[in-house]
Amino acid sequence: MKRNDLNRFTDLHDIQMQIINDLARTGPATFGVLRPHDVATDHFTYHIKTVIEKGLVAVDRRNGKKYYVLTELGKRFADSFEFSKKKLLDQGMIITVFCVSKEVKGETKYLMSKRLYAPWKGHLGFPAGKVHFGETTFETARRELLEETGLEAQLELRQVIHYIDFDETGQLLRDIYKFVYEGKNPRGEFHRVADNGRTENYWLTRSEIERHKVYPGFWDDFFMWGNDDFYIEKVRTVEGY
Question: Where do runs of H (alpha helix) occur along 54-189?
């Protein structure tokens, strides 16, 4: 399925959109956890069945309980849809990544963000955020750094990276442009959890980072230090989406 074919899901009912958004944030969830208190059980059952029939959600039975999870198609839709604007991204996603570091007792520590929603839930990477319409990438980096971590820093654009990502079957997953900023002299009140509750933040050394799962392409971002290539373009096969 090509990414633009996801347009057939943009007219989902608001409750169905909320189911997908909630599962992207929380991971597997039971009926009782997903159902809003102001939605009748039979009404919510209809919407659950609908997203299952459309191939966006599946049932996962474990330990005698029935959980609902996003399918691979559901993850692709959640990653491509801006729920706040009810709009599907129909072009390459444009984001900023901010690689911030500081020295602590002779060790270099890096500002890392753990993703708390699908896809790649639980993976670490540098904090990042989508560029808003009419916003420069520098404005995005400064805004997102403050919103996600509570910090400000001296920001400098170091790289632009274009990834076209496919899964192991050849299915297009993402088309993404990353403007990678280096951040120096961080200051402010550090937030362990982002304002939107979608990420957790840590200061980690490289050896500590290597003990965790990281986003595909994370080490491309990391090795901007010492890399003279300003523009990088890659077509990749990624796992674990």
Answer: 72-80, 137-149
d(CA 141, CA 56): 32
Domains and CATH numbers, the chain: 3-88 (1.10.10.10), 93-237 (3.90.79.10)
Query: Global pTM?
Result: 0.67
Report the alpha-carbon distance of residue 37 to residue 25 in Å, rounded: 19
66-86 per-position pLDDT tens digit: 999 999 888 888 877 777 666
In sequence order, which residues have a C-beta less than 8 Å from that of residue 84 and are 6 or more positions away?
none
Task: State the average pLDDT for the chain.
Answer: 87
As a whole number of Å, the end-to-end CA separation of the chain is: 16
Task: Give percent of the chain above pLDDT 90.
Answer: 54
Cβ 89 vs Cβ 39: under 8 Å = no
β pairing state of 107-115 and 81-82: unpaired
Three-state SS for 170?
coil
